[in-house]
Amino acid sequence: MKNILTAALILIGVSAAAQKHNDTLLVKSTTICDMCEKTIETELIYEKGVQKVAVNLEDATVEVVYDSRKTTPAAIRTAISKLGYMADDVPADVAAWNKLPACCKNEGCGKPKH
Amino acid sequence: MRSRITLLLIAIAALNAAAQDIAGTVRGRKADGSITVPYGNVYWVDTAISVTADGEGKFTIAPIQWPGQLVASASGYSNDTLTIVEAPSEVVAFVLEPVVELGAARIVERTQGTLLDTRSTVNMERIGQKELKRAACCDLSESFETNATVDVSYVDAVSGTKAIKMLGLDGKYALISVENIPFLRGLSSSYGLTLLPGPWIRGINVSKGTGPVVNGYSSMTGQIDLSLLQPSSAEPLFVNLYGNAQGRYEANVHSAQRLDSAWHNLLMVHANFNETELDNNKDGFLDNVLNKRINILDRVEYQGDGSDAHFGVRYVLDDRRGGQVSRDEDVGPAIPRYQVGISNELVDVFAKGGFVFKNNPTRSIGLIGNFRQHTLDAQFGNRIHMGLEHSGSFSAIFQQLLRDGNDQVKAGLTFNYADFTEQYIDSTFGRTERIPGAFAEHILKRGSFTAVSGLRFDMNDHYGNFLSPRLHLKYDLGPLTALRASGGSGWRSANPYVENASALASSRTVIVEESLNAERSWNVGVALTHKFKWMQRKWAFNVDAYRTEFTDQMVADMDASAHELRLYNLRGASYATTVQADLQVELVRPLQLKVAYRWYDARTTYSGQLLSRPFVPEHRAMADLAFTSPNEKWRFDITLNWFGTSRLPDLSDNASAHHFGERAPDYTLLHAQLSRVFGPLELYLGCENITDFMQHPQIIAPEQPFGPDFDASIIWGPTNGRMFYGGLRYTLKKKNK
Hints:
The complex is a heterodimer. Chain A is an alpha+beta fold. Chain A contains five helices and three strands. In chain A, strand 2 and strand 3 (61-67) form a beta hairpin. Chain B is mostly beta strands. The relative contact order of chain B is 0.10. In chain B, a hairpin with a 2-residue loop joins strand 37 (591-606) and strand 38 (609-612). The chains are: A alpha+beta, B mainly beta. Chain A binds chain B through residues 8, 11-12, 15-16, 18-19, 28, 38, 45-47, 50-52, 56, 58-59, 61, 63, 112, 114, and chain B through 28, 30, 34, 36-39, 55, 74-76, 108, 446-449, 451, 473, 475-476, 478-480, 531-533, 538.
């Protein structure tokens, strides 16, 4: 019982420490519809160092919480671009954009045009 | 001159006014506190003058009068109004608060059939509708064909009764519930698995290890929780027709109606019919079971502001016949025909409701109640088993969120009631159990660590009081990696005759050696789930190990004698250890591969000897390939199941011609299904047991069904050969408002 408690406390300590290396990056993209939100969130989380991904359809941004020891903002922007979406000043990868479903290529797929 | 000056003054005034455009920003605050730019709209109240904020949230708007009311609005946020009395000297900053949304979370149907969940604290696999459709799937017992954790098999060769195995132990040690209402218990624990139609099921959550205390005391090895179609999300009309080469025909019709904005109703009707006699292995006994069945469920759903409620009624009438094939009566009445007839009639009523306290949304109460009446009338040759069950359960759960929703406490009271009157062969008996109970659970979340600790206390007026502690821990090693551990104890009252109904399909004498205790066990387990990308593909990996140890068990001993089934309390050790590894990968977008391997070591002390449990293989493997065409019109699924050898009960005191061997051989089963969608219509065609592997022989001494060695309950493998089936599903979709 005591061992379990000690182990639990160590785990809590480690997880608290891990938070210190986390940085947040807000990327402006061209995400358009619900499907794009799903695609980006489920695909980007597989990138090394990415802890959390939140897509905001209203302002077409992607908020990424990442471990600054494992990845960099540039790598994250490249990853988003490879999915076929624009990332700040990095244009969307043409081959990936072509593979996107029709809805994601059109402006205004149910969401405001900007 | 004067007019010109006036004009100039007006012009200057106009310029001034223009220079005094109000500059500002519009920002939104998300639920988690972060600030976003929501492309807000800013306008003067009661005018048509409005501007839109830009990509950085900045805007400028011309004033019309002082004072004026300036409103900022954005979709998903509450409006904010500022009364501006005079030209502001600084930038006007709007920070909009999000609109709080109550209501059911969107259930996202993904392309994978079984989701390995990295989010829940309990080690849970979700089987969704896409996967349920891949199996032949006519009833609940056929819904686990592509799942590696749950095994379904026939208990005997004559009655068509199926049973589940989980973690190497009989399904009775798992809590099988429908939307958290206990479903398979009492008389249903034997015959109930085939009484729930597959098309009624929306999803199945299979959890390994003891479950949370909220769900009851009897989840000793795990919990299988089914969720059925909901009135508010079901399609207005669904029709399913099914037929197979063995003469089984089924029809399902669902109709969902919207009564008004808050009330919805769903009616589901299922009918099943099989009158074709088959005896391909020529042992004189029907390979399948003749069947007539009707199931009806009507459920009503209410979704209100901060409360929801569900009510429903279910009715089942099931008539099954098996045994020897019918023959001309010329053969003479001197040789009686061995016939099996089982009839089940069930009425189930349930009601659940949840309320969120209006003045304190962090608090809520849930009430769940159900009542059932089940009549069973079974006859196996000369043996009868009749039962009448009245049972019900009620629970009240109070939930309070703490610390901004990170932590939670739940507390509640439960009451379980069961009244049985049974007649088994030549004895009649009855039992009434009243089990009040109370439980408390605490959920703690700190960063990546979650701990759910619970305690249950139940007072069974028959067996005494039981304290069941449970602990579930989860640690997120990364966003895609979860480590889980669980431990706890559970108990259940044994129903000796219902749970050993397969003994009826034999000439074994059932001997209950002593007054039976409740069954009690401890279960501990660890599980690791990891999702990753490798070679540009997405993989999901799961490995887990569980150990269940019984401190009290009803031992069903078939080894003491081939002519007896002895039931007695455990004296010695009884445990089951299982290790499982699963791997899922998306080979290419349309193709998913899943492979799984399980190792079991389940042993019980039978008459002083620690032996492995019969019919539980030591090794089990599964591979499943699922193809969905990019336009989702074609679907193809092929599943390979391999079962290792298992121990068979000791039949040494039978005549030597009636021996089965010490161990069952290993065998492979192959299933495949192809389906094509044409708009609202889906056609499917499939084949079960493509390699046509059947257990041979299935029945001991089939030529003397009333003789001393007759036994149709030694079933280690499939009793059905190759079977082709086909069907159609028609869905009338809801019109989007």
